[in-house]
From TrEMBL:
This is Fused response regulator/phosphatase. GO terms for biological process: phosphorelay signal transduction system. SMART domains: PP2C_SIG, REC. The lineage of its organism: Bacteria, Pseudomonadati, Pseudomonadota, Gammaproteobacteria, Oceanospirillales. The modification 4-aspartylphosphate is found at residue 51.
């Protein structure tokens, strides 16, 4: 050990130095209290032997100053004094001394005390080393968490949750939440709300949700259907996450324009649809395994469709809410949740208040997430294009083009039509061409209306009158799904090209189908039937386009969309 010996008597200091060297220690010396502070700072000894009675700064004061200099490192101090009194002994320990020796010093006792203290010093050094390693680990962990938090905050968009149709709470049990809540609007202005609950808690669970938010937002913005989004979410979780990392997930899609709601629940607690009085009108139980259990080819999304009822609201939540426990081990439960829904304007606050009172000082052991999704009485989210739709839109003749910049053709057979979301797929290809990306939303509406018309009225021969009456769209969609499963032959052909007419650039889209067609003249007539839902889509396309022309029996349509004025 390196030992600092301090004594104002030269003879005592020489004797002490000799005894310490004989025991194999490295010795540095100081002849008074002030000098000991200088030597201590220069030499950083492991142990100090401090004489008590010295002129100027005595040993007790010097010891206290040394400890201040050494902090936070612990340096043991053994006081040496000829005064063998109880008062000095107590004062030595009060001054931070580790032990006390009385003069004349016995070599054996000195060696024994030093060895005893050396064991403590070694333990302290080991502990300090371990603390340093632990602190480095803590600092690294905190930095990784900071980076992870930054990444997750930027991947999980929160802007969509500001939608006026949504109210929510998201309370993590730890620093990171294993629940994810996302909301976004599609190009057709449908509202999609997703809630996911990963296995476990904290950062590990939060990481499991990372593939969900990015995939969800990307696919909603591109206009994919709920079923396609659900299948892709499952594929992403299955392929990117380790075995055993499952995510319970649910999506609510609200479409006020078409007056229907679609709900999918895979592993979450039952969702509830309640009216303005808090009475349950529909329930949506989980009927599928969570994401990541089955492979992509095995997973089929089974959703529920209900009619849009103005004033109703859908309640979706993770199990952390109903399984929150109070000090007596009781669960918050479904009954308490449903009892908070009688006043529509205060539902979220009532739930928060009830949960807070129930828990008291207890903290939920799981992430608590809840979303209330409105069906407003006034269609505040209807597309402006629909709102301003004119009743006197007429067909026009397609002009000859003077120049073609590019042209692409697609031919879709029955198997592709059944398995693909044609609109976002085709739009994703077309908008890769320069200058078209800024027209994404309007082109989505045009393509989706024309493709749906070719499929529904051409190949599937669905009657638009099915959309009229109570539960109309639910009936229409059920008939659509049934006929789509049964159809065995047919095709839809799509051609898109960028042309120039008298110097003005246009996107020309032609869609042909193998069906019997439909009475397109009836849609553009002046009968009262035109104001019904089934005539609105085609009229919207005509209003968005410069020209529109049907040929044949209505199973071939061409539109010119201006790339200059839109």
């Amino acid at each position: 050990m390196r030992i600092l010996a301090v004594d104002d008597t030269r003879a005592n200091l020489v004797l002490l130095q000799a005894m310490l060297k004989r025991a194999g220690h490295e010795v540095v010396t100081a002849d008074n209290g002030e000098h000991s502070l200088e030597v201590f700072q220069q030499e950083s000894p492991d142990l100090v032997l401090m004489d008590v009675m010295m002129p100027g700064m005595d040993g007790f004061e010097a010891a206290q100053r040394l400890q201040e200099i050494a902090a936070p490192r612990w340096v043991p101090i053994i006081f040496i004094s000829a005064a063998a009194t109880e008062e000095y002994y107590i004062k030595g320990h009060q001054s931070g001394g580790a032990d006390y020796l009385f003069k004349p010093i016995n070599q054996v006792i000195l060696n024994t005390k030093i060895e005893s203290i050396k064991r403590v010093v070694d333990m302290q050094n080991t502990l300090a080393s371990q603390n340093k390693v632990l602190q480095e680990y803590v600092d690294k962990d905190e930095e990784e968490r900071r980076i992870s938090r930054h990444i997750m905050e930027h991947m999980a968009e929160s802007k969509g949750l500001e939608d006026p149709m949504i109210r929510y709470m998201l309370t993590p049990a730890e620093q990171f939440s294993g629940d994810v809540l996302c909301a976004a609007r599609s190009p057709s202005n449908r509202l999609f709300v997703l809630l996911g609950d990963a296995v476990g808690h904290g950062l590990a669970a939060a990481i499991n949700t990372l593939p969900i938010s990015g995939t969800f937002y990307s696919m909603v913005y591109k206009g994919f259907e709920l079923s396609t989004i659900g299948r892709e979410l499952n594929r992403r979780i299955k392929e990117t996450m380790p075995t055993g990392c499952f995510v319970a997930c649910g999506i609510v899609m609200i479409d006020p324009a078409e007056s229907y709601v679609e709900v999918w629940n895979a592993g979450l607690p039952t969702f509830y649809c309640v009216d303005s009085h808090g009475h349950v009108s529909d329930t949506f139980e989980s009927n599928q395994l969570p994401l990541g259990v089955l492979g992509g080819n095995q997973y089929e999304v089974e959703s529920h469709i209900i009619s849009y009822q103005a004033g109703n609201q859908i309640i979706m939540f993770s199990d952390g809410l109903i399984e929150a426990e109070n000090s007596e081990g009781e669960f918050f439960g479904i009954e308490r949740l449903l009892s908070c829904l009688h006043h529509p304007e205060n539902r979220l606050d009532d739930i928060k208040h009830s949960l807070g009172e129930f828990l008291g000082d207890e903290i939920p052991h799981d992430d608590v997430t809840l979303a209330l999704v409105d069906m407003p009485s006034v269609d505040t989210v209807a597309s402006e294009a629909y709102e301003t739709l004119s009743d006197d839109v007429l067909l026009t003749t397609i002009e000859e083009s003077s120049e073609i910049d590019w042209k692409v053709n697609f031919h879709m057979g029955v198997s592709e039509i059944k398995s693909l979301d044609l609109t976002p797929m085709l739009l994703g290809i077309i908008t890769q061409f320069r200058g078209l990306e800024s027209h994404n939303q309007k082109l989505f509406l045009i393509l989706s209306e024309l493709l749906n018309n070719a499929l529904d009225h051409g190949l599937l021969e669905l009657d638009s009158a099915l959309k009229t009456g109570p539960d109309a769209f639910e009936t229409y969609l059920n008939a659509r799904q049934s006929r789509l499963r049964e159809i065995e032959k047919g095709f839809i052909s799509i051609t898109a090209c960028k042309i120039s007419i008298n110097g003005t650039p246009f996107l020309r889209i032609t869609i042909d189908d193998s069906g019997k067609g439909f009475d397109y003249q009836k849609v553009f007539g002046n009968s009262a039937e035109n104001v019904q839902m089934h005539g609105r889509g085609i009229k919207l396309v005509k209003q968005l386009c410069h020209a529109m022309e049907y040929t044949g029996n209505g199973n071939s349509v061409t539109v010119d969309y201006s790339l200059e004025d839109n």
